[in-house]
User: Fold this.
Amino acid sequence: MIPASAYSSQEQEILAGLKQGGPRRRSFEEQLYRTFHYLTTEGVRKYHLTEDDSASAYSDTIISVIDNIVKGRFEGRSSLKSYTYQIFSNKCVDLHRKITTNKEKVHQTHDLDTLIGMLPDNARSIVQQLIDNSNRSLLEKYLGEIGEKCRQLLLLFEDGYSDREIATMLSYNTADVVKVSRRRCMDKLKEKMLPFNQNYE
Amino acid sequence: MSELLHYIDDYFTGTLSAAEKQAFEMRCTTDQAFAQEVAFYLSARSAIREELHAEKRQSFTAVAVAPPPTTKVRRLWSYLAAAVIAGMLLAGWWIFSGEPSVKQLSARYIKDHLQQLSATMDSGQDSLQSGIAAFNRKDYQLAAKIFGTLSTQQQQAPDAIKYLGLVYLNTGAYDQAIVQFDRLIQLPLYANPGPFYKALALLQRAGPQDRQQARELLEEVRSRQLPGNQQATEWLKKI
Assistant:
């Protein structure tokens, strides 16, 4: 890990703000986005992407960086700038490769990997096979049909906010109420998927 | 079903004991129905995450971006010459034009940031993307028609309402833009740009109470750290 003094004051501020959480985290996300936005010119110049594609790669980069910082996966082995640049380069390579060869995701880690990686090998392979049979587009559709509050609750949890923080942000009485509500929302989603799943079982 | 889901959630949120975790992992390999439930849980979390990322991408488009620093190496004299010219222009502008008003600043913001919408990387050819394409080629009539239809469909309503408001904002139909941004404000979004956009529309309409109302909205944007809070902070000093 590099010493904290090696970060610029701006990087330190962003890192502290993202780790602190709460409603103010969003402003630090925007600050991070603005700080390294000039990298998009690199995507155009070095990786021959269009401006739109480079901007998309950059947005995805910032989302990954935020996620890694919030979930404690950013270990501080490099400056925030170098870390962001490395992820951005990987995403540009992926995108360039996708455009030129129609092959995707060399570097991009699938969102499922983090969670499914918690399972041991034998359990993981069984569950992975079943996941492949799931219908993603239906899930996305039904996520829009479980009610806006439920949807926001699930999004905030997935964004790394604790139940306590969500309670404050969405005006729930306690963290326990958030936890119960969140699980009810997952139940609602499951119930909507039930007819589809029964066809496969 | 519910208890099973709680059990699965406990595993993936790390609240089970070591022995309980081991039993959970064993059950995944011996109980097909249970493994199916785990698969659903993981698929759902993944779909939620995709949705979250889509929202974040959208919220980033509302963030003002400073012009990128140039990396070209230039001789010192060219910097000096540029600085002198810029200084003269700035002085001239300051003397003859005065400081730009908030209305001018907001008009510049609309011109610089809200006349092109970002299409998502894996956007495909859905209706929302067709609307965005129409918007970007300034076919506002078609864009309004598409976003108007989509704004009544629950799943795509937040984006469609926002874009419909931006169509009206760009065509000078400020009353209609404000109606759409009021609809957007009512939605419990992760990072709602509605208050900031409504403030923009009010500043452009410049009616009798509009400036005061815009100020209140900008204060809300600043205090709640909503999208546009940097501009809000800057403009509040001038309003």
User: Anything to note?
Assistant: Chain B touches chain A through 60 residues (CB under 8 Å). The CA atoms of residues 140 and 167 of chain B lie 6 Å apart. The two ends of chain B are 56 Å apart (CA to CA).
